[in-house]
Structures are given as C-alpha cells and as structure tokens.
User: Fold this.
Amino acid sequence: MQTLYALLTQVSSVTTLKGLEDLRLQALGKKGLLTQEFAQLRSLSGQEKAQRAQELNQFKEAFTHAHTQQKQTLQALELEAQLKSEKIDPSLANAHFGTSLGHPLNYTKNRIIEYFTQLGFKLHLGALVEEEFYNFEALNMPAYHPARAMQDTFYFKDHKLLRTHTSPTQIHAMQTQKPPIKMIGVGPTFRRDYDTTHTPMFSQVEGLVVDVKDRVHFGHLKQVLEDFLYYLFGNIRVRWRASFFPFTEPSAEVDISCVFCAQEGCKVCKHTGWLEILGAGCVHPGVFEHAGLENVSGYAFGMGIERLTMLTCGINDLRSLFETDLRLLEAF
Ligand code: PHE
Assistant:
C-alpha cells in the first residue's frame, strides 16, 4: 500500500503527458502495481480480504481522479504552448511584397489610368448600383429604345440596376462639373452574360471630354485614342469603322491589327487580321440635353479592360482572370 500511495502523490508533479501515462501504467496497467496487489488478495481471507479489496478500490478511484485532473491541466498547458508557438504577426511585411506586378487586370487598369490622368483626365469611379435614368435614359435610351436589348441588365426595385457600362459616369460628371470637362470613369460593370468570352462582371474604362461648342471634335478623339493604343500595344495599325451608339453621333468602333498573327489570320482575329478594341464618338446632343448642358461639344469612348488585358498580357481564357490561381499570377 505504501508504494501505491507513493505513486498517487507523484501524479500532481508530473510535467509531461508521456510521464503521466507511464505513471498510470505503473499504477493501473495490466502489469501494474494494483494488478499485483489484487493478485495477492488470494492469500487473504474473510474480513481482512474484504477490507484490503475495499482499500485497493478506493486507491483506484483516487488515482483515476487525480490522473484525469492532471491530464486536463497538462493538455491545457500544451495547447497554450502550441498556440504561442504558432502565433503569427499579421502586421509583419510580406517578404514578397512589392516584387510582383499584381493581377494582370489591375496592372492593365493602372496602366490605362496612369496614361489618361497624366493627360489631365480626372478619375471617376462612380457607383455600381445606378438609377435607370443614368444608365439608359440620360444616354439617349428611353424605355422603348431597342438598344436597351443590347445589354442584358440586372435590375433591382425602384428603377435601380447594376450599371451595364461605365457610361453613366459621363452624366454624373456633366451634372457636377462645368466645362471644360476631361474625365475617365473606371470600374466594374455587369451584364447577364456568361460564356467563354463573357462574364457577368467585367470592367470598363470610359472617357469624356466636353468643352465650349466646336472646341473639341472627332479629330481630337482620333488623336487621343490612337496615341493611347500605340502606348498600350506598341507597333500596331489602327482602323476606324463607322458604328452606332445611342449616346454618340457620329459613332465609331476602333480595331487594331491582330497582335497574335501580325494580320496573317488566326483564330483570335477570326482570320480578319483585326481585333475590335473600343467604341467611341462625339457626344450626342440629346445627352447634353439630359445632362443640362448647352453650347458645348465633346467626345466619349469606352473599352473593356479584360479584353485589353488578354491582348497585352497574352492570356487566352477570359475566365482565368477571375480564378484565384497563383500559377497565372506567377507566370505573369
Ligand atoms: N458604353 C459603350 C459599351 O458599353 C461603349 C462606349 C462608350 C461607346 C462611350 C461610345 C462612347 O459598349
């Protein structure tokens, strides 16, 4: 009994879970002290045997209780130590920070913003949830206008919607600034579209220049955009095609010579040698009227940042731009 109780007093001073388990085996294990003591009961009889058995059971209970408590204490200490050793400091600078060009989309967007802001264009981000008026009516697209069907729209209640293009930033700029106005509107836009070349969210850059009547004209637009395209793509050819947008007149679409096949003809340019890149034109008088401006003229343009990114960074799957795949970022 003496040695049994010696084991019991040791329990509270064991400092490791392994040591505690060793002690438990010494006391209660198959070859442990208690088993041996129970075996010796055979040599006793009557009152003595019963009393001894009771003592042994009391010991077992006391030991088990002490063991359980010490185990919980040691486990808690171990967890605490583990948490301490695994603690991270989120304020530490990332060793790689600043060595990457960032996501190709942001990289391209920033290159575009940098170019235009250096020319004096003011940056507008605008709101993603717009009034129907700013997205359509003010841009010469009344409710019955067939051009509304060109854009599948996400609608909310009360004539609100997710902007389908960045063109509403034009109207806000014209309502809040006095000419001369020179702005770009940049950011996400939304349409109910999803296939290999369309995603429900995509990004656009809008440009708007407004000044006293006849001080800006289509020639300025041509020069600004062609210079921009040479900046972005380097050695390419630019082609202007007559087109239609309800909010510009005249309207044009701009193509560049295919950056993949040097106009030999390939899948990307559908064997035409040309890639469509942006829409542009002189601001329609109806738009000025909606925005409350008189005796002014101006031009506007709009383009998709994803497409520009794919063409400048050599990325051929639009959807890969929206997957958080580190391999794409590393390759880039
Ligand atoms: N908003 C047009 C679009 O999303 C692009 C555009 C902007 C065209 C400005 C002309 C002038 O397709």
Observations:
- The chain is about 40% helix and 20% strand.
